[in-house]
Write a structure and sequence with these properties.
- There is one protein chain.
- This protein is an alpha+beta fold.
- It folds into two domains: 246 residues, Bira Bifunctional Protein, Domain 2 (BirA Bifunctional Protein, domain 2, 2-Layer Sandwich); 91 residues, Rossmann fold (3-Layer(aba) Sandwich), CATH 3.40.50.800.
- Helix content is 39%, strand content 21%.
- The protein binds one RNA strand through helix 3, strand 6, strand 10, strand 11 and helix 12.
Amino acid sequence: MLTKAIKGVKDILPQDVARWQAVERAARELFKVYGFSEVRVPIIEHTVLFTRSIGTTSDIVEKEMYAFTDRGGDEITLRPEGTAGVVRAFVEHKMYATNPITKIFYMGPMFRRERPQAGRLRQFHQIGAEVLGGAEPSVDVDVLALLYDFFQRLGVQGVALQINSLGCKDCRPRYREALKSFLDARRDMLCEDCQRRIETNPLRALDCKAAGCKVATADAPDMSEYLDDGCRDHFAAVRQGLDDLGIVYSINKRMVRGLDYYSRTTFEMVATDKAGAQNAVAAGGRYDGLVEELGGPSTPGIGFAMGVERLILMLPEDGTPAPGPALFVAALGDEAQRLGRRVAHGLRKSGVWAEYDYAGASLKSQMKKADRSGASRVLIIGEDELAKGVGILRDMKTKEQAELPLEGITGELVKRLS
RNA sequence: GUGAGUGUAGCACAAUGGUAGUGCACCAGAUUGUGGAUCUGGGCGUUGUGGGUUCGAGCCCCAUCACUCACCCCA
């Protein structure tokens, strides 16, 4: 072979596409009911869009972006996530001017140059939703309800919704400082990474899997005690709303998000079994400062993204075989084959899936192809039938056969098969 | 970026250092105009690649590449 697919990117083969389409269809239907419109934004953007929005200290920006200088000297990046591009489009097209609230969703590939493993690819796909313009707790509830509904609708088992509040730009720094001094006092108990995180991203230490760090942070200060009144009320109202709607969730005080722009409500849909070590199937949160950061008017926002590959790993197995054509035409001899081709073509024009044998080998081999195609019926036209002016319609399941006059046979088949 | 595991036919897997095999799938025949089941026959291959040890390497050693899983990170 000359070359293979690039490491960490996958072909989605025909036998897998049905599952993808089922997921995408379910998403489109549900988003519509919640009043979201689809948006399609480019998969390449100016690099600065991501460095600005995601935060320069995040791993994504530091070492995972597919960033390059194009032939004209522009700094370009393949999008590593979807929110930044959507917000850019929101600002660029002044969507805030036509509607106080904009609810949009997107789906498509994202790119991060990581070491691939189960549920982690270099090109992966996300379905995401964003609400721009609403700061009320009800908006958070709506977004969470949408996410929750989606997993229920797909019948995904073994996932749990976790939420947390990270506070805002006013109260989070206070917590951050408190946590920093707490961690600093236990520096020698922490892993190397977390020692570094004390300065760069202390919140991350709460999420560290290292045994020593877990012990060291067991009685770390609690964000919920540092929330200011606004954030505390907001979080309480969100929880109230979720309870009202019967949405099952738990509060994970240690949930931190990797992207800098999050504030207040954050959440994850985590896999409780399967899916390997990469157990975040969907995640998101509020990002009230992002629109302004990207040059738009001060506009609150909240959204989430689901990893489609991870989601599909969780989906119940679908045992139903792929459907086959309504009719397969097996014809013997030149004249019969030409007739068969016309019949198949006529059925197709009427919207009926029909196949015919291209090679025109023995009847046995044509029957074999018909069987393998999954066709429910076969039209057999041999020399004898041609002479008699009939075709044999065979039901592949019951093996019943009936003669049909060739005169007007296409119309008759359309009637019977559609 | 770090670590571990695995590379044999299209797929799934065997083979105490001594002639590379089994199942599935594929093709043909048994059935000269009727698919699936059964039986019979057929081709399955530079054992990932390159070196080394050995009379002899799929097996041992080294390197390299690929894949997988985990760390990290994250959807």
